[in-house]
Amino acid sequence: MDCFSLTARDFSRRAWLAATLLAASCSRSKPLPIFNTVPPFQLTAQTGEPFQSERLGGAPWLASFFFASCNGPCPRMNTAIQQLQERTYTFKGLQIVSFTVDPERDTPEVLAAYAKRYRADPARWHFLTGNREIINMVAKDGFQVGALDKEQSHSTRVMLVDKKGRVRGHFSITENEEPAALLASLSALYQES
Length: 193
What we know:
The chain has 193 residues and is of the alpha+beta class. The chain contains five helices and eight strands; from the N terminus they run αββββαβαβαββα. It has an eight-stranded mixed beta sheet, sandwiched between helices. The chain has a single domain, classed as 3-Layer(aba) Sandwich (Glutaredoxin), CATH 3.40.30.
């Protein structure tokens, strides 16, 4: 069988990712936009350990907002992020950061159980809680997704951040086309010098 006679079913997830990356690398598109810079922060990870934003420097990272007791879009979004986690091991140093919008209830213990539910790799996917004002600053000033409120309303997009802490894209990964767009943008970001 030659390479042109493969059907869509013949492609595994790895082949799909390779094809996406190849397509992204072959095209000479304009650089990704720069939306804003995420301010420095210190919060607490699901392990109970302090987590400083400086830890994310040197490689691109993905960010999202959620809360553990959400019965709406958060489970769908985190299932999609879990799938992204599996598809992005080839991106050296890539981290995933999920900020709770309900820090009063989402303690490190609650977040640890939540992370386990989504098979989060603790070396790559961090669930953060802490001071509401700091989380609000990160959401509003860094990602420009609005201030947090008592209703736990939040953005359901995944943000792509470059190694300098600059937001380079917002993606709704629960929609069919967006995961491919995020992966292509991530590939482009890794190719930037």
